[in-house]
């Protein structure tokens, strides 16, 4: 249970870090712009925010279940992954930490997908918030791809959780939109300042998380590969 709670906490933090990273933040801004069209109707704003959150969660859960189902459908692969996950986790964490610190980068081309959808978000109807959440969730950027495929999926494999961790991650990625939709519904006038503080926080949060990942990864390598603490 303690191991699952720790995994859930990490999944939530991965989602927050994904949501406030520059590229995913662009898609969240598009969603906020969409919600702002209903600013005169507070309940509609909140409803659209929840629909967007549900869309992101559904996308991540479906993708994770598809990936994990393919893994667990082959008993030998599943057994191998779960048996050696502790040994693989150390190098994975170190690589993810280096990516978060921008010491290395992923060869993922920027397609401008979020920017293109941002231009069309304003013309969409209220119920479009759900598919908008699905589409934006699947528009992976280097940071979101790293956290989802290299951190969340291995953790889900290790814990045998194909639903809970991806759902927690998906909800967390949509929290900024949910938060801003709440501010819009309440008639807040300090959205710009809140956004600027969030952008500033993202840099420090990513660096701290990257440092922690590298430190924990080194510990896992020493403990599970080299047997230093055995």
The average pLDDT is 76
Whole-Å distance between the termini?
A: 24 Å
Number of helices: 9
Please indicate the percent range of residues in DSSP E strands (runs of 2 or more).
Answer: under 5%
Task: Give a verbal description of the structure.
The chain is mainly α. It has 9 helices and no strands. Helix 2 crosses helix 8 and helix 4 packs antiparallel against helix 7.
Relevant terms:
230 residues; mainly alpha; 9 helices; 0% strand; globular
Q: Which helices and strands, and how do they pair?
A:
Blueprint: H1 2-19, H2 22-36, H3 42-72, H4 75-100, H5 113-121, H6 129-138, H7 142-159, H8 164-185, H9 191-225
Helix pairs in contact: 1-7, 1-8, 2-3, 2-5, 2-6, 2-8, 3-6, 3-8, 4-7, 4-9
What is this entry, summarized?
The chain is mainly alpha-helical.
């Amino acid at each position: 249970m303690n191991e699952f709670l720790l995994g859930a906490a990490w999944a939530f933090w991965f989602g927050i870090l994904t949501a406030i990273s520059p590229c995913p933040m662009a898609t969240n801004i598009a969603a906020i712009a969409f919600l702002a069209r209903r600013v005169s109707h507070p309940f509609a704003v909140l409803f659209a925010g929840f629909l967007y959150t549900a869309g992101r969660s559904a996308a991540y859960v479906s993708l994770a279940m598809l990936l994990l189902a393919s893994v667990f459908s082959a008993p030998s692969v599943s057994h191998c992954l779960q048996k050696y996950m502790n040994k693989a986790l150390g190098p994975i964490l170190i690589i993810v930490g280096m990516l978060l610190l921008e010491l290395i980068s992923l060869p993922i081309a920027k397609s401008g997908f979020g920017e293109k959808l941002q231009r069309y978000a304003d013309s969409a109807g209220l119920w479009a918030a759900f598919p908008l959440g699905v589409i934006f969730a699947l528009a992976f950027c280097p940071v979101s791809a790293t956290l989802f495929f290299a951190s969340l999926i291995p953790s889900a494999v290790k814990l045998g959780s194909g639903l809970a961790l991806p759902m927690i991650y998906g909800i967390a990625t949509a929290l900024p939109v949910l938060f801003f939709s709440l501010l819009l519904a309440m008639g807040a006038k300090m959205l710009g300042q809140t956004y600027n503080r969030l952008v500033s926080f993202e840099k420090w949060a990513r660096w701290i998380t990257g440092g922690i990942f590298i430190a924990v990864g080194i510990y896992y390598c020493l403990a599970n590969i080299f047997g230093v603490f055995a």
